[in-house]
Hints:
Blueprint: E1 6-10, H1 14-26, E2 30-34, H2 37-47, E3 51-55, H3 63-72, E4 81-85, H4 89-97, E5 103-106, H5 111-121
Parallel strand pairs: 1-2, 1-3, 3-4, 4-5
Amino acid sequence: xxxxxxxxxxxxxxxxxxxxxxxxxxxxxxxxxxxxxxxxxxxxxxxxxxxxxxxxxxxxxxxxxxxxxxxxxxxxxxxxxxxxxxxxxxxxxxxxxxxxxxxxxxxxxxxxxxxxxxxxxxxx
Length: 124
């Protein structure tokens, strides 16, 4: 039997946190949560998750900056990152694809699409 994977969700919208946490737990992932960029960085260092889902619009440090900091930490730099964005993707695709992340998903997201992206980076 495979080991349960842990996903760190860095998101400040309580509705998205509730829906996403429920979805991930039903898919049998452990979920760690953080509501700010700094909490996310602290949680990543403590938990060492298997994958990180991060919102770009965080209240303290931008999601972009959190991604950059994660990539400069030798202990965390290889963790796959998927960003959530409510921005119009065509307008910012070049900017977001230049971020040091594996993938992105638009909010509101389709649950099957999110799970498919996660499974791509966390195969069983």
